[in-house]
Amino acid sequence: MKIGTQDQAFFPRDIKEKFLFLKEAGFEGFEIDGKLLVDHLDEVKEAIAKTGLPVTTACGGYTGWIGDFNEERRLNGLAEIKKILEALQEVGGKGIVVPAAWGMFTHRLPPMVSPRSQEGDRKAITESLLYLETIAKETGTTIFLEPLNRYQDHMINTLADARSFIDENQLRYVKIIADFYHMNIEEDDISEALHMNQDLVRHVHLADNHRFQPGSGSLDFKRHFNQLKEDGYDGFLTIECRVRGNDPQAEYMKALHYLRQSLG
Ligand code: LER
Ligand code: MN
């Protein structure tokens, strides 16, 4: 298993400097913002060539959700995701991380009643995934469907929820991304959920229980990594977290060291 990272405010802004910094810090892959990739494709290609640091995946960088309430926004989002997948193909990236939606609606806060039925939710997500399945196939990429916790989205919260879309529609280019932070809220047991969905989990996001850097909270990373190992997971573990402490960069390096030790 390799360790990658998303962008952080304390990384260099310049793309080449960013890649160089991450390579030297010991990261093995970079999960890039989709818009940054599309808007700066040549620069990203040069940075990869110069440093050897791969772009593993994209996350974000489009403006409509695959399960968007608004049909125009949903279709716009799909068109933007298509562009991101085409750019990923050019840099050898594996695919894009997509939740059903993020911050659009939650049953757990007022007004608590969704403007759309559950059937409507499923129809929108299914149509999007069937479309993205064809684009992923064409571009040799993967759609990593991401369950989010109940406060960020109401449609896909558990790995089993994500799995149901893949199974029902026999999707071959849609897999599951398991995010430890969301799983800590939604799953009975992180290791068990990883094990039950071992055939579909192809990407992982890491943060501790409170979403700060790994090692600063209470998650048992060693146990969950052992489960992934036992199940033959060979994908990336990508840090997606907030960072606290006086020196965020030093804290981040400490987290990377902690994760390597937990991996054994
Ligand atoms: C959002 O909380 C999240 O986990 C990101 O990966 C967005 O897809
Ligand atoms: Mn995530």
Helices and strands, in order, run as EHEHHEHEHEHEHHEHEH
Q: How many domains comprise the coordinates?
A: 1
What percentage of residues falls in helices of 4 or more residues? 40-55%
The span between the termini is 11 Å
- Which ligands are bound? L-Erythrulose, manganese (II) ion
Strand content: 5-15%
Overall 3D form: globular
Counted beta strands: 8
What Rg is obtained from the alpha carbons, in whole angstroms?
A: 18 Å
The number of helical elements comes to: 10
CATH second-level architecture: Alpha-Beta Barrel
Q: What average pLDDT do the residues reach? A: 98
Q: Could you give me the name of the CATH homologous superfamily?
A: Divalent-metal-dependent TIM barrel enzymes
Largest sheet: spatial strand order: 1-2-3-4-5-6-7-8
* Class inferred from helices and paired strands: alpha/beta
Account of the protein in words:
The chain has a single domain, classed as Divalent-metal-dependent TIM barrel enzymes (TIM Barrel, Alpha-Beta Barrel), CATH 3.20.20. It has 264 residues and is an alpha/beta fold. 46% of the residues lie in helices and 15% in strands. Helix 1 packs parallel to helix 3 (41-51), helix 4 (71-91) packs parallel to helix 5 and helix 9 (221-230) packs across helix 10 (248-263). The N and C termini lie close together (11 Å). Strands 1-2-3-4-5-6-7-8 form an 8-stranded parallel barrel, surrounded by 6 helices. The protein has 10 helices and 8 strands. Strand 5, helix 6 (159-168) and strand 6 form a beta-alpha-beta unit. The longest helix has 22 residues, at 118-139. The structure holds L-Erythrulose and manganese (II) ion (MN). Manganese (II) ion is lined by residues 146, 179, 205, 240.
